[in-house]
Amino acid sequence: MGKKRVLLPASEVDVTAVKYTPQRIQGPHLTGFWLKLFVMLAEAPIIGSMIMILFKNKNRETEMLKNTVIPEDPMFKPEFPPQESEPAVVCLEEDGKPEERVELALQCLPDYNPGCIQIADSSAPFRYWKIRDYAYAYRSKLTTPSQVAEHFISAIEEFNNKNPLTPLLISYDPGEVRSQAAASTQRFKEGSELSILDGIFMAVKDDIDCCPHPSKGGTTWFHEVHEVKKDAVCVSRLQSCGAVLVGKTNMHELGLGTTGNNANFGTTRNPHAPDRYTGGSSSGSAAIVASGLCSAALGTDGGGSIRIPSSLCGVVGLKTTYGRTDMKGLLYRGGTVAIVGSITATVEDAILVYAAILGSSPAERVSLKPALPCLPNLTSCESWYAVGSLRLGKYTEWFNDVFSTEISDKCEDILNRLSEKHGCETIEVVIPELPEMRTAHIVSVGSEALSGLNPDFEDGKSARLTYDTRINLALFRTFTASDYVAAQCLRRRLMYYHMEIFKKVDIIVTPTTGMTAPIISPSALKVGETNLHVSGNLMRFVLAGNLLGFPAISVPVGYDKQGLPIGMQLIGRPWCEASILRLAAAIEETCAGPKKKPVQFYDILKGNQL
């Protein structure tokens, strides 16, 4: 029996006396035979419980949850106090049509320069085509959505013929893509396009319903118990804007992993380095955008699953405030940590897609009372001054807790440039109890995932899951009701600490991940792997966005010496997506430097593999 620990109320904690503890998850790195053996032991009735108790003791989970008196009441889902309004914004109507919101978002963007689309100079710096580039090409009759569809289909065929398998899409119908593209082409011919998103190629993560595709959640069997009868709300909103939805992207099975490894369908490779992971769990969504094949993809984020792969693949990943987007039509819609969001090549594309998919569910409007959604008005002079007025919070010891100092150095350089070019002030902050946040998150997401999956495990389907998923589920089964309640008490404490910080700053800045893309072990391709050290490095900075529901965005800021992308994370106050989008746009425009062309990149606008 451990010694009882009694915490002071969060309001009485002296944050100046808080000492940072480097975060290291204790656990084995296993693959191949040893992974299979460990799963067999972990699932054994008595031995398995002993193994998981040892693991939880090593990582202080028992101490935090069972041996600690937590004075706060539980907070079973994020609760947000009212926030100050953001400057230089355009407010949107949640009940309005998605295409009307997208039109307002378009008016918030700087003037469009079509000159670069005409340039054929191969020596010109690399850039991703933006959504507005495609729209200009369609309207100027330089190409059509149908022509782009043929380029896309040819590229996907090439990906699908790779050995070993590295699929971006695990449900895909070329005929369906051609049909959607033909309808869009006809609308452009008639001058009746639905929005700037008409004819824009987008993909959907495999845990989001999108007819006529099954939703498998990266498994081999989930579609047997989950019938897709209609599109998810976020998907239907994109369709009303005319987007061409190309299929369902590969993912880490059931979203319960951070690398993107999937032994069921093959592991998606990082377009910048095919021997490395994309990050997960929205692995295929990030890779298909980074490869140039889609302008945007939908992902879900319950533990960094949008931001981690976006960072590792060098693209933009937006996690909205909890409750900002309707979760109806997702495999996990009853939890308190996950959201649906976007992965895009650029920040301005993130703004356009966000405008299309936002809108809380009726129930969440009652319980959460969301503020009106707003976008940064990037066309006004006031917007320039609004960037400079942003106060940025940095917890230096946490910021520097990375696998390679190249990451923290690059992010520090961005902060210096923001100060020099925009006058942004960086303020030192302290965030207490970060290890407790990790524990509260794993108990919350694990218990909620298991609750949703339990009904489908009665007939032995859990044995058809990958080995690393089964290890996670074995751990989740050891969480008790009292563990879950204790985790929610910790959630309230951590919310207090962060809201106190947000009285002094507008945005908390961190690296997105504590490491760049990890190498794929060859033996992991067949049976998967578990590597908690890698998971800890990848998830170190992302958990506040999930446990506490804050909006956050990962924006590319450069590369390490191996040419691997580095992302910087901006965590905003509740409902303040406009502020993090504004700062992300400033970083992309004036601070991040030139982009590097991925090793695997397709120019489907012009029909070339570069």
Radius of gyration: 23 Å
Number of strands: 21
CATH class of the largest domain: Alpha Beta
Low-confidence spans: none
Described by strand count, sense and barrel closure, the largest sheet is:
11 strands, mixed
Mean pLDDT score: 95
**For this structure, what is the CATH homologous superfamily of the largest domain?**
Amidase signature (AS) domain
Number of helical segments?
24
Q: Tell me what the CATH architecture of the largest domain is.
A: Alpha-Beta Complex
- Could you say which structural class the secondary elements and strand pairing correspond to? alpha/beta
**CATH topology group of the largest domain:** Amidase signature (AS) enzymes
For the record, give the distance between the C-alpha atoms at the N and C termini, rounded to a whole number: 62 Å
As for the number of domains, it is 2
- Order of strands, main sheet, comes to 5-7-6-10-12-11-18-19-16-14-15
Strand content: 5-15%
Organism: Nicotiana attenuata (Coyote tobacco)
InterPro entries: Amidase, Amidase_CS, Amidase_dom, AS_sf
Family: Belongs to the amidase family.
Keywords: Hydrolase, Membrane, Transmembrane, Transmembrane helix
